[in-house]
User: Fold these one by one.
Assistant:
Number 1:
Amino acid sequence: MGERRLKHWGWGYEDQAPSREQLREAAAGINERLGFGGEPEEAVPLDQVKLREPRLKVPSAFGDLFTDEHYERVVHALGKAYRDVVRGLRGEFPNPPDLVAYPRDESEIEVVLEWAEAEGAAVIPFGGGTSVVGGVEARFSDRPVVSLDLKRLDRVLEVDAESLAARIQAGATGPRLEEQLKEHELTLRHFPQSFEYSTLGGWIATRAGGHFATLYTHIDDLVESVRAITPRGTWASRRLPGSGAGPSPDRALVGSEGILGVIAESWVRVRPRPRFKSSCGVEFDDFLAAAGAVREISQSGLHPANCRLLDALEARTTGAGTGEKHLLVLGFESPDLPVEDPMRLALEIARDHGGDPRTSGPTGRKPKNTIGLRPVDRGVEAWRGAFLLAPYLRDTFVACGVLSETFETAITWDRFEEFHASVIEAVRGKVAEICGAPVEGAGAPRVSCRFTHVYPDGPAPYFTVLAPALRGGEVEQWDEIKAAAAEAVIEGGGTITHHHAVGREHRRWYHTERPEPFALALRAAKKALDPAGVLNPGVLIDP
Amino acid sequence: MGERRLKHWGWGYEDQAPSREQLREAAAGINERLGFGGEPEEAVPLDQVKLREPRLKVPSAFGDLFTDEHYERVVHALGKAYRDVVRGLRGEFPNPPDLVAYPRDESEIEVVLEWAEAEGAAVIPFGGGTSVVGGVEARFSDRPVVSLDLKRLDRVLEVDAESLAARIQAGATGPRLEEQLKEHELTLRHFPQSFEYSTLGGWIATRAGGHFATLYTHIDDLVESVRAITPRGTWASRRLPGSGAGPSPDRALVGSEGILGVIAESWVRVRPRPRFKSSCGVEFDDFLAAAGAVREISQSGLHPANCRLLDALEARTTGAGTGEKHLLVLGFESPDLPVEDPMRLALEIARDHGGDPRTSGPTGRKPKNTIGLRPVDRGVEAWRGAFLLAPYLRDTFVACGVLSETFETAITWDRFEEFHASVIEAVRGKVAEICGAPVEGAGAPRVSCRFTHVYPDGPAPYFTVLAPALRGGEVEQWDEIKAAAAEAVIEGGGTITHHHAVGREHRRWYHTERPEPFALALRAAKKALDPAGVLNPGVLIDP
């Protein structure tokens, strides 16, 4: 389509791929820093990727709605989990869609669904393709597959500045919708890590977690109404600030991961851009003391925009700390109200728990309140940079033989200490066992933890694993670690996912977590709306 | 059971019923104040109420689980809408349950469901019986009915002070659960108008709206997990502060109005009792200017606990004002943080919109910040008193021939002005037409409006109608007014209910509002969980 193209594997655009020379330098740096990782492996180029022949022919009746182009089939074949990046690097695309469809409007979505149903094909709705749970990969072989890419539906259709809401098409990526909202001096401020590529529809389908560490941050809370195309008609809810009319139809679609309908557009709650901002890093010697500070802050009614706790290892890995101290990244922002007072109160709480605000950090600068400026604390800045760069860096990790993957959950405060200890122990043990690496010291695999979101009743811990990869056996290696992690999470009472969704990857643990009568209800709902099972088979429920 | 008994009709306990003399005095006062209403009619006494014979025999196998006692059948026969109070007063109980069951635990709920299914009977879950939408009335004649009263399940089973959560049985009324939480210096602070009688399970089943005018106030947001008994097993979700694992199972039960399962208990989010409180009334000459102030406050991030706008007529009716000014009741509260600053900022916004804070009101006292004390502003106090007394007063209204009923909705800000005007006009016109009363002046029916909750994207307007009743034809009279109101609400883009639920009364308009594919999904879910259609037939979906 003449635009900047996504890399056919891994993260980012084609023009962002590092050169051979850069990769070699990175490999040396990674090994020096982590104590593992080796020579960079080169990715199989796009033209050498072998795909199975398409099992569907591009229908001639619908113009350029469908394509079977090689690049398109490759780039829609996998998500962005570690296992996907590994396989992409190696040119392994076992389940490519047979066709890719790019609808321009709702009627074309209907065309795709009807045509697919008539052909006995499945349809996988595709937003940014950033699923890390196999949500967009057709892991079934009983029928052909159309990947339904919503990227042409990328407009902000209407802005209601009085109610602070906007009607936005499902295929708009984070930057696309923010650039259109900016014209109205408004913002959705929903910044998942995948922000650059993922889409509003994808966020709604997967219950994405957003920018804010507290208060309304899930897309669940930002949705005012939704329109979705189902095989049995259009699911369109009313724009309402609130309603008590039966179970919420929006909440039934939010998290439905493409099995009930294709989200076409949504009215979402937006807000004025923040004018007041304050940001500060707080160091702790003791992780549980830091967690205690976070608990108290989350229950204080202060509602920080940022309240992300990084354990010492995570702080070191992301360059936000030296590895001795745990780092709490605190931030407040508001379009209307000064934020000095809540920051002061939050810092008081942090100090009560042994926290040391970085009054002079690596920069020698004091944390200060900034109006319309970026935060100045370097640890905080480093963390933000690392947060957005992480998915790019991972491609390099993978090429250099470094296992790099994450998992995330949520748990109530009363169980957190034991939960955290048991999850870390289970994963560290399994990583050491599988990687044959030392548990501690130089070259030891890293299992670190941060909080991505916090609630009055508990945190959402997010774990990162960095370890020497078993080259050629990466997928199986990770699968074993993942199983140990997921079992510890489920055993400890957590959720199998706080904001990564279920997809195909989390199915078996999700089945344990989900109330069985709800599974019956969901299966029945699916059957009623999609009797032919066209929509994303194998996600959430049995295909 | 030897306890204080509920009146067999209307609101409150038997010992709260006014004497004949009191009623006569009240009638005179009402007529003087409203310009309509006449001699009080006496209620048909309990022992003269005629019920159809029970179509079920109390089974002997289950001890005192079931009863067919006359009083019990009467008191479970109706809800608390105007039409219910009218019929109760006249001794009209056309659809009494055949039996009433009082389970003591989950296994007894299962017994009731199984026994009823085997007998071909329906089961109506019953909390406080305060439904104003026909939610507990068996308006069907094709099968016998068991009213399943949860009142014996009224305990706080567990308190997790660290996560600020409590595990509470579904049959606990507001006062019962608050008295148990108080021992832990905690509170749910969920105060619907029916607080004294309604129950946690009822709140969850009907998506009740709570104490707070902004932020987390719906029971939807306070539920951490739920256990419900369905005909196909126990629906038990995990205690989680947040999750992204598929559509929320809790949100599917919240608002299910007893058609999917019987809610047995729930972990809910509680909080420390507020130590800082501030409350103030602000007067406005112009209702839309006041609404503008509310809009700006709701979008400011100040999160007032109270932000209830009463139009001048509503303020006069409730004794909170003289009828010339519109009154905004503003309140802030916090367990931890002083509330002077947010109150000051909110009052600034109110002033910018022409609001006049009652620095010297009827009491001559200034609004002041109170710590652990009740608010001092008399308009505010009067409003609070009237809020809680309203349902009691309505029995007297009904006895004296005064039509007294409410309806409520929610709408986005951009549509509010036109919506409000058209709803008020439609209802005033219909009331005048039916009651043959003047539209304005002394003796005119009253159609007034207040906001019960406000969101950044819109208010939840609540309308009250007071008019001369057509004695003997009250139900039909109200039905016509209600239809005009509901049509104006639906036509104007509102929701048929913001927190009163759908029940049987709102069905026909709910069908317009609800996305059709969601109706298909809900019906299928119901069929999967309750194939015999035992649970609350005729609520939300076709029986």
Note: The first strand of chain B starts at residue 66 and ends at 67.
Number 2:
Amino acid sequence: MRGRRVAFQGERGAFTEEAALAYFGDSVELVPMRTLREAFSAVEGGGADYAVIPIENTLAGSVGEAYDLLLEHELRVYGEVILRVEHHLLSVEGATLEGIREVWSHPQAIDQCRRFLESLGANVVPMWNTAAAAKRLAEVRDARVAVIASRRAAEIYGLRILASNVEDDSNNYTRFFVLSKESRPPTGDDLTSIIFSTRHEPGALYRCLEPFAERRINLTKIESRPVRSRPWEYNFYVDIVGHVRDPVVSEALDALSRRATFVRVLGSYPRWRPRDAGRGQGGAGQGG
Amino acid sequence: MRGRRVAFQGERGAFTEEAALAYFGDSVELVPMRTLREAFSAVEGGGADYAVIPIENTLAGSVGEAYDLLLEHELRVYGEVILRVEHHLLSVEGATLEGIREVWSHPQAIDQCRRFLESLGANVVPMWNTAAAAKRLAEVRDARVAVIASRRAAEIYGLRILASNVEDDSNNYTRFFVLSKESRPPTGDDLTSIIFSTRHEPGALYRCLEPFAERRINLTKIESRPVRSRPWEYNFYVDIVGHVRDPVVSEALDALSRRATFVRVLGSYPRWRPRDAGRGQGGAGQGG
């Protein structure tokens, strides 16, 4: 793993950096990228070996832009990471909960901590993102100010946690994709992400799911989205259990390709196992 | 329509207010609500007759929280509105594009106007939302500052449009639901939104779609989401073409209810027809 470069979308201390750490451990070089597109380009252009990008969140839904970029680029989904979004109230040494007059964070993080913030009664100020708020507080070192950000942001910017898990809803998970130019060999517990299109006619989706149902292949996700340039077609984002090299999966994909107007396999990758967190997800470290 | 109260999530000048205006015209009383939950409660408690809430966006995906609230509450989906998200650069009288040194807006709006902002070269400052940025600029009246917000925000806060449609991607649509306690009678061009659950086993979704495919009922949306409290079950959000009072639709829903572990019809409502914009979508004005 040493020497590998991992691009992530966001800045130092962002949740996506936590996801990259959870997946690869801390022996890789993590490279922050401002946009999703820049993260894709970094891997495509060889500036990074992997990219970690958010793909869906239980409260906010799928990241449509990420799926669009997957269609535009030739990268493979090499792995997944699922993390619970945990928000903490951070401040500088010497600060107390009672002394906090102002809280800085991203509007979405603030929204997700409404109940805590109402009980705190401090003024809230919007920032670009949770990490930027932490970074700025570390610079100004004002004990009357706290930020809502991740545990990782506290570590990076030398802040302490005044109150942990201040989010209203603990059912807030984000799923990330790890992208690479390489394909991943089967591990025995894999998922495969595909995108396919159908004409917009009754039963079209039903017929496209038949090859999977017949072979008792389980789906773990399905989502429709209108195709940008073709108003009467739909793209479906589907995750299935199994690897493209499993004969039953490759047969089902063959059958699908005869029924759909378009099929693209984004990649096969090991299902996320939280117990592996921080240990580099096995194969990833050995170069896949 | 006069005397009707319509709650919307957001503040004056927010996109959701534009959606409410596009649906109901300007003869209703529009009532801003800070959160989605407050918009639901306003209708449930009788403080408003309708609520308008965002349900999905082409770039950002479905609003998971809105679907959760639909399951928690007994409100009906009474209508839909689909609007293209258009961002404009607004400033005060006398301001010029060349003189702008700072741009205020919500981080997501800023993200969606990256290319324009890079060419402008001004400093960008995050705000709670686009309408709040417009409101504050109207107060301070600084011609070196512009905001990115909606046309409606320009009207409400007396700002002028310095540059229109500054968004990078014109394929940015938001779909809104209009909620009510009442059901909507058939119009001949209706959609029906349902949520159903299945056990997580191969072919479960396929079997649940069969009743629709057999009856040639078209789907316009499908999305899976894990059920909060039951780890091995999935909820599916599905929109079908037709009204629950159409015999073929009600037969299909009966058949579905024998295959799914849970079915809930959120409502049947006329498909959005942009030409009706501002004319109250027919039936809505006559009390449904």
Note: Residues 277-288 of chain A have pLDDT under 50 and may be disordered.
